[in-house]
Amino acid sequence: MLVLAGCAGLQSDRVRFDGLSGCPGQTAAMLAARQSQYGPLSDTHTLECALTVLRDSQDPALRRTSLGSRLSLHLAEREANPDRREKLAAEGVSLAEAALAQGADDDAAVHYYLAANLGLAVREHITLAMDNLERLEGAMKRALALNPDIDHGGPLRLLGALYLKAPAWPSGIGDLDKALELLEKAVNKHPAHPLNHLFYAQALWHEGDEAGLSRAKAEFTQGEKLLAEGNWGYSKESWKKEFAEFRQDLENGL
Amino acid sequence: MRKTYLIIAGLLASLAVTAAPAPEMIVVCYPGGPVNTRDAQSAMGSMLRVVERVGQWPENRFDSLFTSKIDECRKQIAEKKPKFAITSLGLYLELRNPHNLLPVVRPRIKGRTSERYRVVVQKDKYKSLDELKGKNLGGTVLAEQSFIGKIVFAGKVDPAGFFVLQPSNQAIRALRALDKGELDAVILNEQQYAGLSSLHLQTPLEVVFTSEEIPLMGVVANSTTTTEEERARFGKALEQMCTDSEGQKLCDLFGVESFNVVDAAVFEPMVKLWDEGS
């Protein structure tokens, strides 16, 4: 049984990076200067070293950035152990909250990574997910309003996916029309990202008619091709699983 | 030789003790619903784990098979012959004789164990149901046309002959179409009608038809494959679910205050209407 705690009902204890050695000597300033280099292509050891420095840093300039939350997300996404994955995502939420407390309210990336981590932390716990729906929507909307283009249309993609997967009206905020609008925009503005096509395909599939199914298949094929041909680093494996799950839905028809 | 028999008997005995029985399949039917099957399966799984715990069954004693497609539901109930199922009232009325279904529990939602259906139109556009003859009627509940005709309209209106039906799996989409004048009317269940105030529609709506009170349906059992004791135990576990700390969150999620054991007699007026409409 998971022990869920904290203001959002998330796990509050951190993942320990056992046996972490060989980390480069880094200061908070060095980390801040290199922050754009950390991403899905970075190896896990590099991300763990960076997160360790950030955990120990009290530098307000560094803690005001989205870096800590982004590092947590990349580590969580590639983590196979569900408990560790949720702890890393919960830490990402906490680091984004700390950034907001330091005055990062106008930074779209902080809201975006907060939402992405929160979604990952609660997605296997249905009641926890329901408890956090409003917060997820709020963070995604704020990121969208500030900058819809970060992470290849990430705010469009995440908010679209939320409206697609949340319980529909009148039980919840789920809204297929809104999902279709946002995800179509994500695909048109950022056609190179595989997940934009996958999520748009899922929304089209939910239309429940033959025309939607046909367009969903086309979007799915396009997304799968982009995933196979692109250099998506460590994100590739987890995205492949998402494509494989939806392939089953498509094969089962309407 | 006797020693060999003992070893084999011992092995078989240990197998009998350790082999877990196959989970009891519960078919869950939600006709016309917009629910994602995978997510719904996950929610049902969470609910069944609570039911198993409060009913003192071993974990994973039950499994669920969810569908929002009415034909798929008929097929699964015929093929899997589940001991228990969660169905709409329409499916219960249709399948009760061929599958010997008996109601076990029904939900209580906002203090009520029954609901009314309503037909809504743009204000002042139509004054009565009669004026909607030949007009477009939308709604999620149209997935069960026989139920709408025989029970909601009490056999007085044949939906397919009276309206031009525009079924939808998204209630909000049907209401937006009504708002834009693309539909003439939408039929809503109680939960959808109660949610209207949360929508920001451009045009005010009004009700031109309200059904009689119709009992809510919950869990049914196959009376030939379950014993009275099994039905009572399952019903009691469901009754306890919403008072359990974890179960309460799931009940909130489904919008249900509690599940209450129900007597089949409650549904007799509906059975009569259904049979008269055959």
Can you walk me through this structure?
The complex is a heterodimer of chains A (254) and B (278). Chain A has 254 residues and is mainly alpha-helical. Chain A has 2 domains: 1-14 and 36-147, no CATH class; 173-254, Serine Threonine Protein Phosphatase 5, Tetratricopeptide repeat (Alpha Horseshoe). Chain A is 67% helix and 0% strand. In chain A, helix 9 (150-165) runs parallel beside helix 11 (194-206) and helix 11 packs parallel to helix 13. The longest helix of chain A has 20 residues, at 82-101. Chain A is globular. Chain B has helices spanning 2-18, 37-54, 70-80, 89-95, 145-152, 159-162, 171-179, 190-194, 228-241, 245-254, 268-276; strands at residues 24-29, 62-67, 84-86, 101-108, 114-115, 118-122, 136-139, 164-167, 185-188, 205-210, 214-215, 219-222, 258-261. Chain B has 278 residues and is α/β, with parallel strands linked by helices.
List the helices and strands and how they pair.
The complex is a heterodimer of chains A (254) and B (278).
Chain A: H1 28-33, H2 44-56, H3 60-63, H4 67-77, H5 82-101, H6 108-122, H7 126-131, H8 133-146, H9 150-165, H10 176-189, H11 194-206, H12 210-229, H13 235-251
Chain B: H1 2-18, E1 24-29, H2 37-54, E2 62-67, H3 70-80, E3 84-86, H4 89-95, E4 101-108, E5 114-115, E6 118-122, E7 136-139, H5 145-152, H6 159-162, E8 164-167, H7 171-179, E9 185-188, H8 190-194, E10 205-210, E11 214-215, E12 219-222, H9 228-241, H10 245-254, E13 258-261, H11 268-276
Parallel strand pairs in B: 1-2, 1-3, 7-8, 7-9
Antiparallel strand pairs in B: 3-12, 4-12, 4-13, 5-11, 6-9, 6-10
Helix pairs in contact in B: 2-9, 4-5
